Amino acid sequence: PSRAGLTNDFTRFPQQMWEKVLSKVKKAVVFMDDKCAEALHWSGGAAVLLEAGARNLKEFSSFEACGANEPKAVFVVSTLLKGRTVDIIKDIISLSHFQYCVVITTVAHSVHLLANNVTTEMEGNPVFEQFEEKLCEWMGNMNYTAEVIRVPVVFAPVSQQLILTPTFAHLFPLLSPDLESINAKRPEKKRFGSLVDIDTHSLPVELQLEIKSLASALNSVFEATGTREESFAVGPMSRIIAGELANHPQAKNRRKTAPNKASIIFVDRTMDLTGAVGHHGDNLVEKILTVLEPLAGHVTDVQVDMLELTSLQRTPHSQTTLAPGCLAQTRSPAAQSLWEAMLTSKHKEAVMEVRRHLVETASKEKLPIKMSMGRVTPEQLCSYMQLFRRSWGALESHCGVLQLGLATAQTLRHPGLPRWDACLAFERLLLQALGDSEFPAVLRQLLPLMKPRGGEDSTASGSRSREDECGADELVLLLVYLYSLADEAQPADQDTEEEELEKLERELIGVLTLVITREPELSPLLQKLTGCANAEELTTERAHSAVEEMFDTLRGLSHTRDHLKQLRSVYTASDGVHQATYRPFLRQILEEVFHPDRVECPDIEHMSGGLTDLLKTGFSMFMKVSRPHPSDNPVLFLFLVGGVTPSELRLIKEVVATHKPGTQVLVLSTRLLRPTDIPELLFTTQRLLPDIGI
């Protein structure tokens, strides 16, 4: 196939996997866990199941069951068939009257063997076969039908250029506290000096299985698309994943015969936290994802309020009477092209594009539209959308574009949006300050921002009441932003700086604790950070220990690139003419990859399995062996471990267009990031112990 052919095959792969599931669902009630449901959501959603003949779709939960007239069930799960998953399947079957059960797991049989401590290669799928017998036992008759298969429905095609893996949304590169926990369990002499030294076998078994599942899922895409990949890695977690893929048992045969060549570069998110937590993205989708409520059970998509398309009045209950819309409009080509534009354009262009789509759609439907030029306002967008209420047909056929229009209008007029600009302005000040001062002096500039929320007496100085003032969430984001750049500050006398910094950190911890305890409502981030569901539960001690732990992690953030030789900084200092700027890590990587002189970058490490590598290095004294380079192949996959931001998608598109226009680039990532995801992944995620359902 042509180059475009290969990336198209990749974007079609999720659909092909769902077709395997659809072939099993006729006349069945389907039970699906949240992660699989999120993957399906971006491949057509529940509608495709119902069109394939499914009777119903239910949550994968012990509180669900079926009636006597529903003899067939299909379970779709993203976990190992062990532990909690098995308990839930057993509960559902015991409360129902099934005669036919199909269990589909996204986890490969080889990973099931490892999870059961079987290290030898085995014929067939014994773990699945044993589970089929169990299913018949629970259904109460060994002559009933049970089937257990693996289908990797882990990929969500979010756009032409981006595929996400909702199943691995919480997989994140390790940080210094994780190194400490790993070392604490090892004898003194066998402790690791840095994160780079850790190998797969030293990781907790849950994380090993998670990484092997990801490598296996990637292997299945390469297999289905006939791809022979060269793997490269930047960052410790990426090296481990790329190593697993390189040594995957089925991969060796595939690489001998596969016709299509591609390069895949794995990059750890921790190589550039500044870009993910900052507000400089100038991207509409980043703002939509930040201010609108997430869809229940989803990591990526958000709720769009549909009330304006109806004639209902807004009441306290209207929220529950009307289902929300969303951003995943996979069944409408017009909405999809608008979504692509929103995702990879600058904010202003994206908003103009939304207006253009609404105007064109309204004129097509001969709705009485008043054209207006100039600035796009949320009121103007809403007035266009309200025209569609008059015609049910128009509403139905353009529902996709209208949901994206509503998401845009609701974001532009959202009371939380001014805080975005407040953060951006402050980040710019901090960037400049880093070039002129020592780190403690820059960090001190955060203190005046740390004001508890205004009580009765909010006119008094020292409390915040205005919408555009930084709240607790924004303060946490600014701390991450600043600590990720700590090494860029002016050097100082080590001893005095450490003493000064310690004192300042104690002060910051105290003030931030106060800010958090004074919040009338806890944001989702603060709930996760403190482990409290509401402000009433929260004690000063809990807030204080959460903030202290947060600072333990913050201190290590400026060292995530220490092991790199060349790409060590994401900061360009002011030269007196230009201001200091943030320099995205991904741009630096791509400029290395597409360098016209095909220079070898020591930080982009080539990973390939097995003996040939050793032979090559041994022979290189006598023979000239050129090492593989990521730009050798016409197709490049970038796998961002820990998430990608919408503005990075635009950046990738721009750099490729400038440096090597013919190259096909497809971005794969564990999630699409909004700034507030980063503190959650840094401070509230069990990175060493992912929940794999055991």
UniProtKB/TrEMBL annotation:
Keyword Protein transport in record: yes
Keywords: Protein transport, Transport
Any single biological process term in GO: vesicle-mediated transport
Gene3D superfamilies registered for this protein in UniProt: 3.40.50.1910
Recorded family membership: Belongs to the STXBP/unc-18/SEC1 family.
SUPFAM superfamilies for this protein: Sec1/munc18-like (SM) proteins (SSF56815)
Entry superkingdom: Eukaryota
Gene: SCFD2
Protein name from the UniProt record: Sec1 family domain containing 2
